[in-house]
Specification:
Blueprint: H1 2-43, E1 69-77, E2 84-87, E3 91-94, E4 99-107, E5 114-123, E6 131-136, E7 142-144, E8 149-158, E9 168-177
Parallel strand pairs: 1-9
Antiparallel strand pairs: 1-3, 2-4, 4-8, 5-7, 5-9, 6-8
Length: about 190
Amino acid sequence: MANHLKNHAMTRKTLIRGLLAAVGMFGFGFAMVPLYDVFCQVTGLNGKTSNTPYAYKNSSASVDKSRQVTVQFVATHNKEMPWLFTSDITEITLHPGEVGKLSFTAVNPTDRQIIGQAIPSVSPFQATNYLHKVECFCFTTQTLKPGEKKVMPLHIIVDQEIPKHITKLTLSYTLFDVTELGETPSPSTP
């Protein structure tokens, strides 16, 4: 009888430990997404950029004419997003502090209205804090009716403080179908 009670106590102890481990692993997994977002925001890793407008002061004195930075543009869409999505140019060369103006074009080839949201990313990640968007279609969702084509402006500035060894960077946009979420503001705006 004593062995039976001892085995029962050991089984119960093992079961409790197993359940606590499972709950702990679930909690850790659940917390990883917000922790990763905070880590990326603090370190600038993953190339996540701000989805809020940069407060630009028009001043030619703040343009660094002694060097140039080339910004390449990439337009992709999530596999569930049926839109055609392109940049009007593949790259632009700017002096730090100079405003670059270009546009992206989206076409909805379907027979239904779709709401899209563009999410920007910059590489190399060290350049993330030095590329500013003055005007961007990524600040809000974009709604296209069936067959509609929309030209969406983008105005950018490469910060004068960008490290001198960074002479080329890539601004990539991934377009997502957010129709089921409805007309909502950009995920990173309050």
